[in-house]
Amino acid sequence: MMLPDFDGLEVLRRMRDEDPTLPVLFLTARDAVEDRVAGLTAGGDDYVTKPFSLEEVVARVRALLRRSVQLQEEESSLLRVGDLTLDEDSHEVMRGDEEITLTATEFELLRFLMRNPKRVLSKAQILDRVWHYDFGGQANVVELYISYLRKKIDAGRAPMIHTMRGAGYVLKPAS
User: Fold this and answer.
1) 27 pairs with which residues across the strands?
2) Which of 84, 121, 145, 172 is the most exposed place for a label (fewest CB within 10 A)?
């Protein structure tokens, strides 16, 4: 709570501006009830005063992280890259305000690309993750399904799916 340039409440405000879901624990010498209430009301998740037990602080941090992971898992059914949204629960895909209908395989391919935005994925990685090891089809199936996705996702818009020659494919927000 007591920092040289600005107080802990201001630090919290700035942190919440960047990431509203970030768990925050106040660790401070200010132990008045009003200070505790102010810290928790401002959005702190927990408040520990000095002197403190290191074991207790570690236990409280672990509890905060557990809750944070649970929240992320609950929210993780929605993937977003730029204006492209994929709902893993309902299997709905939107680009901007337009709904896009995909086959099951197209959906799995797009999900894999969206879980790895801005990361170049090789054809082998895509085959392994989307079609699995036992796929016995044609080798150009990745190129074929990438072209299907491009027709649906990129049609009439700035492209998001890019070919990296000799390396694979990458999904990036449209610029």
Assistant:
1) 48
2) 172
Mean pLDDT for the stretch of residues 123-142: 79
Q: What domains, with CATH codes, occur in the chain?
A: 8-75 (3.40.50.2300), 78-171 (1.10.10.10)
Residue labelled with tokens 């403190």:
52
Q: Are 142 and 122 in contact (CB under 8 A)?
A: no
- CA 48 from chain centre, in angstroms, equals 29
What pLDDT does 133 receive? 61
Decide which of 134 and 82 is more confident. 82
Instruction: Give kind and range of the element (H or E) at residue 92.
Output: strand 92-95
CA 50 to chain centre: 35
- Residue 14, φ and ψ in degrees, nearest 5: -65, -40
With a CB cutoff of 8 Å and minimum separation 6, the contacts of 133 are none
Is residue 170 within 8 Å of residue 164, measured between CB atoms? yes
Is the CB of residue 113 less than 8 Å from the CB of residue 155?
no
**In angstroms, rounded to a whole number, what is the distance separating the alpha carbons of residues 131 and 124?**
10
155: which residues sit within 8 A by CB, 6+ positions away? none
CA-CA-CA-CA dihedral for 130, 135, 139, 141, to nearest 10 = -40
Q: Do the beta carbons of residue 28 and residue 35 sit within 8 Å?
A: yes
Please name the residues in contact with 63: beta carbons below 8 A apart, sequence gap of 6 or more: 46
